Structure formats: structure tokens, C-alpha cells
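Quick one: structure for this chain?
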Amino acid sequence: MSARPSGGLRRSLLGTATVLSCTALLAVAGCTSNTPAPAENAPAQSAPAAGGGSGNDAPGDKVTIGFSAPSADHGWIAAITDNAKKVAAENPDVELKVAAGTNDVNLQISQVETFINDKVDAIVILPFDGAALTTVAKKAMDAGIPVINVDREFSDPNAARVTVLGDNYGMGVSAGQYICTQLQGKTDAVVAEIAGIDSLPLTQDRSKGFKDALSKCGLSVNNRVAADFTVEGGEKATSNLLQAAPKIDAIWNHDDDQGVGVLAAIKNANRSEFMMVGGAGSANAMRDIQSGTGVLKATVIYPSTQGADGIKLARLLVQKKGLGDLPEVEVPRKVQLYAPVVTKDNVDQYLGTAFES
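Got it. Here's what it folds into:
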């Protein structure tokens, strides 16, 4: 994720999670001595996968889904809602009721209560505050309406049928492992970190993953500053970092939205002796990586398609389908998405699902 608390605390699929693929599984029947061989060029026979996987993308019974998320006041949150709408539009059996984005906890609670009163079939919610929305989410579950919790967990796991999460610790690990490969054998390398807001668990998780990964190749964080997930905060924190560290070999910036300011500060300081890794996976960061002309060489994905994943999962739940590529009959309780590293070599694979900062 790209995260901001007061502006819509973000955390972190790119595209639709692979676990949501609904490709039918083909079962090939073996011949026995009592079974005649099939005629030459006869069409292959297929069998449905356990869990109703076969044909899961085919339109089914109408599903009405209520959707609520924080205000789209920056790129990652805007993409969450946009991607949810896009997936709903691609499924003719889905009617999506989208509540106005809000950073007012009481208003978001009221929105969920409206969905309950309207007797929607399912609710997909990225709560502004997971703990504050727990009671009303539990109320929906008690009313028989499955809740899909996106990105920010409720304080009671029984308040959601499914939780879709990014991997903040995994982001740090991916960034650290990439830097280790790029600085291989350089044990005296100077590594810097530009974090988000230190009081947030997501920032703490990212930093811990980064530290743990670096330690495995004999490196550590030599210089660290915290910003606030904004362009302005990123520029100010980076300016301070560059003044304090006359030599740097690699920087990990937690968030591509604040990365706009980070890169501005680097340009203003006329520094280019290091490589930089971003976080969240914005389109502008990926285009910069694609050009290969600046210090930004990679970014670590925190999927902005989690809301879209929630819509797909809600549809499957209501229609009593499983995930087409899994033998499991039911949709899982928790889906945690991967944090891949995007470089110039694979950027084309991810750019189409990236968000604009």
C-alpha cells in the first residue's frame, strides 16, 4: 500500500490476485483394459473441479454488493474504488452500490447500516478505521450478509467472512532482498530508508521486513528518516537525509506517492550515486523505472486491486462457488497478496494495473 492515516490510511494485487483465477481445471480420463480408446481426433472430455470451479466466470444469479471505502484523496485509495467499479461492470450479474468515499468513521458506519437495511447480498468494505467499523460489520454478519474486509483488519475476525490483505512485512523483505542482490559482496555499502509514519503498524512491519532481509546479506540500515506518505513530507524528509548522509549506495522509500517528493529532493540535491527502490507500485514510478534514466530502479507492489478482489470474492460467496483453480469447496477466510519487485525487466507485466500518484 501506499498509506496515509488522515487522508485515507492505506496499506497493500496487483491486478486481480492469482487465487481469484477462475480457469476451469481439466481432468483427463485414463484408459483401462475395459474402456475403449477414444476415437482419433475426438474432443477432450473435461470434468468440473471440486468447489464448482468450472464456469465460475459465467453469469449466475444476480448479486447486489454494497461497497464502502475512504475518500479517494490520493492515488492508491482512488485506484481501490476505481478497480472495484471496473470489476463489477465486467460482471453482468453484479449490481454494485457504491457509498460516497469518506474519512468520517461515523458516516462509514451509517453507510454499512444502510446496506444492512437495504438487504444487500454482500458488503465489501475498506474501513477508514478497522477497529471502529468492527461492531457494525459484525451486525451485518449476524444479519446473514457476508462481509469482505479489505486491507485494514477488524478487531474481531468474526466481523468478516473473508479478509483481503496486502503484505507490509513482505514489502520490506522484497525491497531488502532486491537491494542485497544489487549490492552483492559490498559489505560496506550505505543503505538508507525513507519510511512512512513511524507510529503506524504498517510502517513498523515494512521496516522490520527490510531490516530482517538486509541482515541476511550482512547489511543494515545506516540512515533512516520518516515522512508522512505525502509528496511534501517525502521531499522534506529526503532533503534532511541527503544532508546527513554524504554517501549512499541504496535507498528504500516505502511509498511511491511520497516518492514524488523524494525524487524531487534528490534532483534538487543533484545526487545520483545511489540506486532507489520504491513502494506500492504507482504508474509514474513504473514509467520512471521503464525509462532507466533515473535513480529509481525498482518498486515493490502493494496491490491497489484489493477492492476488486473483494468484489470477485463476494460474488463467489453469494453464488455459493469456490475458487476455480482450487479443489477447496469454499472461498478462503483470508487472502494475503504477494509483494513482488517490479524492475525494468518485468515492468510491462505490472504497468497495466498500476495506480496514478
